[in-house]
Specification:
Helices cover 75% and strands 0% of the residues. The chain has two domains: 217 residues, Up-down Bundle (Growth Hormone, Chain: A), CATH 1.20.1250; 186 residues, Up-down Bundle (Growth Hormone, Chain: A). With 476 residues, the chain is mainly alpha-helical. The chain has 20 helices and no strands.
Length: 476
């Protein structure tokens, strides 16, 4: 095993990460998390323009967004296992992995902007989602390894806060770019960030480790997980048009069950079980679903019932990401001082309170002030919660399995973002009232509070009287 692989397995600080350099690497992790999550939503406002310009139906134009989202979510787990060396027998070097993933992400963005027809755009967006899945897995690892353990929660709060902020700011950023420069600008807005990240990473990351091609077993796992999650997400995305699409979710069961019975599925389950993070990942899913459903319902109400434009709606809801961004660094500091679980629990409780305070608005008239301070409370809680909960997962990972652990928590968050709006739409349609959908949002956040309040089991590799156990073998 190389020196870089040994450092990665232990989660130690990178040799080059000293002084200001360590925080430059953390800033790279945060900025790339922001743009990778921004791409989840920034394209949505451009779909009608893409449909007209490329002369395709609106349903076909949706693949500019769906192609990226499906690739990201489908490849997260295989990407985590690949970066940990599962299925190849050799751990991937951090430096080449970062350079390749950022370069691929940027090039695919340029190719998407130059797309002359829809098939070209769909393929490049799927490819960009594949590189995006690598970014989602790599960035928490980069932030964790850039600083010593005593500063880990503070560093982890940067990508954990900026990632969701990218999701929130996607629609308003996309709207402004669309109005000013057209839809192609939406795909190249991330280019300056990617170039800056490449320059910093190339200079500061140690030249250790190599990039190995994924083995056949990993590719088979990617196909199984990808087909299963693609069927699930498609059913949720299309269910708002017709509830019958929910039946498509049944097609997700056979490939996912097959994957769980194989080596790849067993290894992922072993990592989660050994780290004792089942409840934490469930809490991440629940609070992401609550946040996404609230954002969907409030944006729709402000436009339909409040008569606001898309831009005015984005500005009205700006208090949430502003509060989240302000409280994110504080969450990391508090976690380093008082512990990540207590801080994550406090943040989730404040988020649940903010979402619950939206319920009295019901179907009454909406005013900016009534909404803003409630959203600010919820956003403050999300800021406090993000970094500490990511630290809980990553610091509990068995040696040599931080990539897999990071991919599981990212998948939990991404599935929550996808399930939340679909669930809110279904409840709103059945009950006929926006308040019912907001109840779902607050209830999901309360479930997260309950899960985080339960005592976390000691990870198997940290149990008293045991040695640090290695992560499950690829040949198992």
């Amino acid at each position: 095993m190389t020196h870089d692989a040994q450092d990665a397995s232990r989660g130690t600080t990178l040799p080059a990460a000293e002084g200001r350099s360590r925080w430059l690497l953390v800033a790279v992790a945060g900025s790339l998390s922001f743009v990778a999550m921004l791409d989840m939503n920034v394209v949505n406002v451009s779909l009608s323009e893409i449909s007209r310009d490329l002369r395709v139906s609106p349903s076909m134009a949706q693949w500019a967004a769906l192609g990226y989202q499906l690739a990201v979510v489908s490849l997260l787990l295989p990407a985590g296992r690949w970066l940990d060396g599962r299925g190849t027998g050799a751990k991937i070097g951090l430096r080449p992995a970062v350079l390749v993933s950022v370069t691929g992400f940027a090039v695919c963005g340029l190719l998407s902007a130059a797309a002359p027809w829809m098939a070209w755009l769909t393929v490049t967006r799927i490819a960009q989602g594949a590189f995006g899945s690598m970014l989602f897995v790599l960035m928490p690892v980069l932030a964790m390894r850039a600083v010593p353990p005593k500063l880990r929660a503070r560093a982890m709060s940067v990508p954990a806060t900026l990632g969701p902020l990218g999701a929130v700011t996607g629609p308003p950023v996309g709207g402004m770019l669309l109005d000013a420069f057209g839809w192609r600008a939406v795909f190249i807005v991330k280019l300056p960030v990617c170039i800056g990240a490449l320059l910093v990473a190339a200079r500061l990351l140690p030249r250790a480790g190599k990039l190995h091609a994924p083995g056949g077993r990993l590719l088979a796992d990617a196909a199984l997980v990808g087909s299963g999650l693609a069927a699930l997400l498609l059913s949720l995305s299309l269910a708002s048009e017709s509830p019958g699409w929910l039946l498509l979710a049944a097609a997700a069961l056979p490939p996912l069950a097959w994957w769980l019975r194989g080596t790849g599925g067993r290894q992922v389950c072993d990592v989660v079980r050994a780290s004792g993070t089942q409840r934490i990942n469930s809490a991440v899913f629940a609070i992401a679903a609550g946040f996404a459903s609230m954002h969907f319902v409030m944006a729709l109400r402000l436009q339909r019932e409040g008569g606001l434009s898309a831009t005015a709606t984005g500005l009205t809801m700006l208090s949430f990401p502003l509060a989240m961004g302000l409280m994110g660094p504080l969450g990391g500091r508090l976690a380093d001082r008082y512990g990540p679980q207590a801080t994550a629990l406090t943040g989730s409780a404040i988020t649940a309170l903010g979402l619950a305070l939206l319920l009295p608005l019901g179907n009454d008239s909406l005013t900016w002030g009534d909404i803003a301070w409630r959203l600010a409370i919820a956003g403050s809680g999300m800021g406090l919660y993000g970094g500490p909960v990511q630290t809980l997962v990553m610091s509990s990972a068995p040696p040599g399995a931080v990539g897999t652990a990071g991919s599981v928590v990212q998948l939990s968050r991404s599935l929550g973002f996808a399930v939340g709006p679909a669930l809110a739409t279904a409840v709103w349609g059945i009950a006929g009232a926006a308040r019912s959908a907001l109840v779902v949002s607050a209830a999901a956040a309360c479930v997260a509070v309950l899960l985080l309040s339960l005592r976390r089991p000691v990870p198997e590799h940290e149990a008293p009287g045991t040695d640090a156990a290695p992560a499950p073998s690829a040949s198992r």
